[in-house]
Amino acid sequence: MAPSIISEAKTIGYSINVSKMYPLVALLALLSAQGCQTFPSSDAAAAGVEPIATPALPFEEPEPVRRELDEDLVYSYLVGEIAAHRGELRLSQTHYQHAAILARDAYAAERATRIALHLADYQAGLASVRRWVELAPNDATARQLAAVLFLRNEQPELAGEQLDALVKIADARNADGFLQAASALSVEKDRAGAERLMQGLHERHADDVRSLYGLAVLETAHRRFAEAESRLRGVIERKPAWEQPRVLYSRVLVAQNRRTEALAFLDDSVDRYPESVLLRTTYARLLVDASDYPVALKQFRELHRLAPDDDELTFGFAMLATQQERWDEARGLWQGLRGNPERRDEASYYLAQIEEQAGNEDTAIGLFRTVSGNELKVDATMRMAQVLARRGDLAQAREALQQVRIAHPGRADDLYIAETQLIQKYGDSEDALALYEDALAAFPDHHDLRYNRALYVVELGDFEWMERDLQHVLELEPDHVDALNALGYTLADRNERLDEAFTLVARALKLRPDSPAILDSMGWVLYRQGDLAEAAGYLRRALDLSEKDDEIAAHLGEVLWISGRYDDARAVWREALLHHPESDKIRSVLERLQTEL
């Protein structure tokens, strides 16, 4: 049987290895040392050093009580700490409370309060927090928890007194006590009670605009957006240059699905206060969320001017410039970020991609090689392998992938996929199939590996093998959308088992109704079944969603042609060739239908 905590504490006695005991034992050692001091140290005064000025706090601190560490006190501390360590929180709370009374120690009172809160024993918590406030009257956290516990014990007037004290303490320390009050009340289950308490605090400090903002913060936390919006308008009217209420106001608008209004408000705010980094950052990020990347890039450019040493903002600017293919601008930003050791790998990775896009493949390969770390190292190696294979060095590309696969077994499946794709594109089919065998031996139920092999073998003309692989995937995951679509489309393209093809594609479309690829498959199935009007509808929708995909255009044109709508068919093909002038798919269908544009 394990020894009880009581006997454990008695057995420990005073022969304790402090370095191996619980944290509070170190505190006991400190208390013991303090107990031996009769006078404060005069070293600073003797050295002629001016003491650091401390703010004048609003509440008089109690005189410290000197008490020797007798057996009863040490025993209370030890049992409290050991019980907490062992999860016997009720016993721990009782002994911490006892230690707080014996030693008049704020730390013990704090521990007793927090444990009581965890146990939802609000009566015990209130007794502990009263002691804590008595011993540390200028402790903001003590006042916050005291307000919470008075509220939970249905004593709102006394809770309000604690919040008033919190505001005074915060003011003395140049902090915002109203925000601290809102933070403490934001997690209360009794939301109405918490808001009444915060409303009362505001009414007692109505001349201080911060009290109105604190109330708006609490209402926002409670998702009372309409009320918060009204309060924030009042705050902004009274103190228009205060940034935080403007930021919160924009977020409240977004929370009410009024993003356009939020963007307009932030645009106006940035115009009014062009040097505000906070407002401009909020605006830029909301623009990114709204996919308005050109305007967001403009804002990040201005942010970089305002805060050139802020690496977080520079990183966002560099990412956006890269996404917008502003290669020269992005290059300089990533080069600058490489000087920050914490950003070096990311900067090297993205800088390598820019050099790759610019055709500087040697530089790109060198940068990819410098990327270390874990996940990013794998991604960098896969990108580097693509460059090497494209340059004709497939063997070196494969070697790099294999080495990283050994070093990072957690990403082995991704690396197998990357290697198979390279061999399919640049190598020999026998090598590709052999690697698929190795990969599936290591990951026999890996959906993507087996799905990718299915697509590859059908390109090689082995439909039966493709179907076996796809059926295997669907046995493991019946709603694998891509497998459903691939098998259904292939059956339709072969003009076989059309009812089954329709069922498969219909299941896929139900799971992913706005997928251009699946809409195209459904159109192709219906075309094979002879339903030309319905087929054209699906294919038109697919083309509208796909940003001029040439294969979908080839299908739609063919359906229109077979329907006798020759001019419409030619118009679709001509439009597709504007975007894909070398399209084999369009040329193939023109040859098959023996027509010209």
Structure description:
With 597 residues, the chain is an all-alpha fold. Helix content is 74%, strand content 0%. The chain is built from 34 helices and no strands. The protein has helices spanning 5-12, 23-35, 43-46, 71-86, 89-103, 106-118, 122-135, 140-152, 156-172, 177-185, 191-204, 209-221, 225-238, 243-255, 259-272, 277-289, 293-306, 311-323, 327-337, 344-357, 361-370, 375-390, 394-407, 412-426, 429-442, 447-459, 463-476, 481-493, 498-511, 516-528, 532-545, 550-562, 566-579, 584-592. α4 packs antiparallel against α5 (89-103) and α28 packs parallel to α30 (516-528). It is elongated, with a radius of gyration of 35 Å. The model is unreliable at 1-49 (pLDDT under 50).
Largest sheet: none
Number of separate strands: 0
Helix % is over 70%
Total helix count? Answer: 34
Distance between the termini: 91 Å
What fraction strand?
A: under 5%
Structural class: mainly alpha
Query: What sort of overall outline do the alpha carbons produce when their principal axes are compared?
Result: elongated
Mean pLDDT: 89
Low-pLDDT sequence parts = 1-49
Quick structural overview:
With about 600 residues, the protein is mainly alpha-helical. It is built from 34 helices and no strands.
Write the layout of secondary structure elements.
Blueprint: H1 5-12, H2 23-35, H3 43-46, H4 71-86, H5 89-103, H6 106-118, H7 122-135, H8 140-152, H9 156-172, H10 177-185, H11 191-204, H12 209-221, H13 225-238, H14 243-255, H15 259-272, H16 277-289, H17 293-306, H18 311-323, H19 327-337, H20 344-357, H21 361-370, H22 375-390, H23 394-407, H24 412-426, H25 429-442, H26 447-459, H27 463-476, H28 481-493, H29 498-511, H30 516-528, H31 532-545, H32 550-562, H33 566-579, H34 584-592
Helix pairs in contact: 1-4, 2-4, 4-5, 5-6, 6-7, 7-8, 8-9, 8-10, 9-10, 9-11, 10-11, 10-12, 11-12, 12-13, 13-14, 14-15, 15-16, 16-17, 17-18, 18-19, 19-20, 20-21, 20-22, 21-22, 22-23, 22-24, 23-24, 24-25, 24-26, 26-27, 27-28, 28-29, 28-30, 29-30, 30-31, 30-32, 31-32, 32-33
